[in-house]
Amino acid sequence: MSWEAIARKDFEDAVRSWWLIGLTALFVLLTSGIAYFVRPPAGQTASSNDILNILSGTLVTTLIPLIALIMAYSAIVGERETGSLKLLLSLPHSRADVVFGKVLGRSAAIATPIVVGFILPALALAIGPFTFDAGSYIGYILLTALLGTVFVAIAVGFSAAVRSQQLATAGAMGLYLVFVPLWGAAQFPLQIYLQLSGGVPGWVPLTGQQLFRMIRLLNPTGSFKIVSGAFLNGELFSGGDVTLQVAAIAMLLGWLSLPPLLGLWRFEQADL
């Protein structure tokens, strides 16, 4: 199939990128360092899931979106500016093949630093004062790959929708800033407002708690933390707030599918 050829070539191009190699090395060093230095007190043991919870709350949701956005922001617009996109579309490839082939190819590429980045920590956890849960560890790697794929899909969709590399670069930077450092900061003024006003206005059909849950779900990293936290605690679909867990998975799937579809819609209308 046509999209398979595009995905294969895009994967090969992405894994040879110096950006990917450098960020993979950084991810390996940071995950290994956290696994090595975050150890329980002498004479005590801890679960490998405890370390994964620390990684999930700090490193994974900070670095994986950055790697994915850097890897995918120029996936289509970069070829559009160089003229190679016209050559690609002169072959038996549709524009849908290009968009979804690049999503698949770069999603496979983002899995490379994720898998490599968790190998050394696995060795450190397996031989250290930890109880190592291999099933949870592998499952968490798959969830992290899903998070990376979501941000690849967002970046490729944006890359398909814009006309210049400068816009794609600004968009990738803006998306990262909004979803990672600024999302939590934006909630603080809202908390102050709700405390001072005594709650949400009457015309808002949500309670304050429901409003903050919705804000948390809208961010892919927030939905990921909900799902991964429930998984590592053995509560996915079997404990805790199951409705919230289902909503988080639905939100991740929505982010996975909607940006490429919207990008394709704009791409189909574009005059190359």
From TrEMBL:
<protein>
    <submittedName>
        <fullName>ABC-2 type transport system permease protein</fullName>
    </submittedName>
</protein>
<dbReference type="GO" id="GO:0005886">
    <property type="term" value="C:plasma membrane"/>
</dbReference>
<feature type="transmembrane region" description="Helical">
    <location>
        <begin position="51"/>
        <end position="76"/>
    </location>
</feature>
<keyword id="KW-1133">Transmembrane helix</keyword>
<feature type="transmembrane region" description="Helical">
    <location>
        <begin position="174"/>
        <end position="194"/>
    </location>
</feature>
<keyword id="KW-0472">Membrane</keyword>
<feature type="transmembrane region" description="Helical">
    <location>
        <begin position="18"/>
        <end position="39"/>
    </location>
</feature>
<dbReference type="Pfam" id="PF12679">
    <property type="entry name" value="ABC2_membrane_2"/>
</dbReference>
<keyword id="KW-0812">Transmembrane</keyword>
<dbReference type="GO" id="GO:0140359">
    <property type="term" value="F:ABC-type transporter activity"/>
</dbReference>
<feature type="transmembrane region" description="Helical">
    <location>
        <begin position="110"/>
        <end position="132"/>
    </location>
</feature>
<feature type="transmembrane region" description="Helical">
    <location>
        <begin position="138"/>
        <end position="162"/>
    </location>
</feature>
<feature type="transmembrane region" description="Helical">
    <location>
        <begin position="242"/>
        <end position="265"/>
    </location>
</feature>
